[in-house]
Amino acid sequence: MDKLTNYAQIIMAVLTDYVESRNASPNNAEMITIFDREKHHYQVLAMDWRKSQRIFLVIFHFDIKDRKIWVQQNASDYDIIGDIEDRGVPKSDIVLAFHSPNMRPYTDYAVA
Fold first, then answer.
1. Is the separation of the CB atoms in 41 and 61 below 8 Å?
2. Domain span at 44
3. What CATH number corresponds to the domain at position 13?
4. Domain tally, the chain
5. pLDDT for position 52
6. Does residue 83 contact residue 10 with C-beta atoms inside 8 Å?
7. pTM score
8. Would 111 be classed as within a structural domain?
9. What DSSP state is assigned to residue 82?
10. Residue 110, SS3?
């Protein structure tokens, strides 16, 4: 299996597992996955109503660019990046894109 296909499958599996675990609890907002397999964009959205307040939030957004996983959004305290690493993706292939480019060299992850 090539790297691109492998990384896409890992991201989809990790996000699906996350959503299934959160949707099992009746008190959580509804979570859904959105996968654009052609352009390699992968998201988890939370949607709900709290009284008259609409909740619509991108919890996670991952892209695959230049044969690396780019973490564009992580609005959770859940260690989703650890899950990706546990499935065999090295830190050198993960870009924490939610950090500014000048801060990325200070992480243990790829810069670009």
1. yes
2. 3-106
3. 3.30.310.110
4. 1
5. 94
6. no
7. 0.93
8. no
9. H
10. strand
Q: How far apart are CA 64 and CA 62, in angstroms?
A: 7
Inside any domain, residue 112: no
Count CB atoms within 10 A of the CB of residue 32: 13
- List, in sequence order, every residue forming a beta bridge with 94; answer none if it has no partner: 69
Among 31, 32, 92, 39, smallest CA distance to 62 is for: 39
- The encoded tokens of residue 10 equal 């890992």
pLDDT at site 66: 95
User: Cα(73)–Cα(78) distance, rounded to whole angstroms?
Assistant: 12
SS (H, E, C) 17-81: HHHHHHHCCCCCCEEEEEEECCCCEEEEEEEEEECCEEEEEEEEEEEEECCEEEEEEECCCCCHH
For residue 78, which amino acid is it? Y
pLDDT tens digits along 25-74? 888 899 999 999 999 999 999 999 989 999 999 999 999 999 999 999 99
